[in-house]
Specification:
Blueprint: H1 16-25, H2 29-38, H3 57-66, H4 72-79, H5 84-99, H6 103-115, H7 123-129, H8 131-138, H9 144-150, H10 155-170, H11 175-183, H12 190-206, H13 208-216, H14 224-230, H15 236-244
Helix pairs in contact: 3-5, 4-5, 5-6, 5-7, 7-8, 7-10, 8-10, 9-10, 10-11, 10-12, 11-12, 12-13, 12-14
Length: 247
């Protein structure tokens, strides 16, 4: 798939099936039942049909570290899984690969990620990977692809668009966060309200005056959840003034 195969002891023997067995050996039906409720997998919910093995995230991260030499072809197999944990662990592996990759390999990993957006289909999958892969890759490049995703019919692609900007925020670059937030201001989905509000809050930690300028002509039209997230770190009196509509 155009990316150099990592070197290391046993790297050529690593298979998705081996990682899958490790996950399955740690499966817990009680955790799986809780996860199915937590991630709203019922009919008509955002996570409808998602399946769970029942494995805590720290365990998945530990397994991912042991499989950081997993080839992209094997990561692809995991990303296509019906099991949430297999997809999430695959993304953890991909993040580890990206962090240590050369410039050319980072490009290949980014392109691989973008070709697999349909499998990055729940909020935790996005929140852990969008800042670290597309966000990091696009930092010194055109970000127009994120603005295109912000206009997507896919809930998950829209969330990727705003969450990728978390990387930019950490570098003190706020422009695309505010542009994409403005585009998503009237989005109808609660998961977008939360993500946009969260990123606005983080941008405000870097520059509160700029966040207040953004909110001035928008806060009364914003979804309430988005506003609450955005102003969470404001002083109590100021926060209450926003919530009362007195700014």
């Amino acid at each position: 798939m155009g990316v150099s195969k990592p070197t290391g002891k046993g790297s050529k023997l690593m298979k998705a099936s081996d990682l899958r067995k490790e996950l399955q050996n740690r499966a817990d039906t009680k955790i799986a039942a809780h996860s199915k409720r937590f991630f709203k997998t019922g009919e008509g919910d955002y996570g409808e049909g998602d399946e769970f093995l029942g494995i805590r995230v720290p365990e998945q991260r530990k397994i991912a570290k042991r499989y950081k030499a997993l080839p992209l072809e094997e990561i692809q197999e995991l990303l296509r899984s019906d099991y949430h944990e297999e997809r999430l662990t695959a993304l953890f592996v991909l993040e580890l690969r990206f962090a240590k990759a050369s410039d050319s390999d980072r490009k290949a990993i980014y392109e691989f990620y973008m070709k697999n957006l349909s499998h990055i289909n729940n909020w935790d999958l996005i929140d852990s990977s969008a800042p670290k892969i597309p966000g990091a890759y696009l930092f010194d490049k055109s970000r127009e692809v994120l603005h295109t995703l912000a206009g997507s019919e896919s809930l998950w692609e829209r969330r990727i668009a705003i969450m990728a900007t978390f990387y930019f925020i950490k570098q003190g670059d706020l422009e695309d966060t505010f542009r994409i937030a403005d585009r998503l201001l009237k989005d109808e989905h609660d998961l977008i309200h939360k993500a946009v509000g969260w990123m606005l809050r983080e941008a405000g930690k870097k520059d509160q005056s700029r966040l207040e300028a953004f909110l001035k002509d928008r806060y009364q039209q914003m979804p309430r959840t988005m506003l609450r997230y955005a102003i969470e770190k404001f002083p109590q009196e100021l926060r209450q003034a926003y919530l009362r509509g007195e700014i």
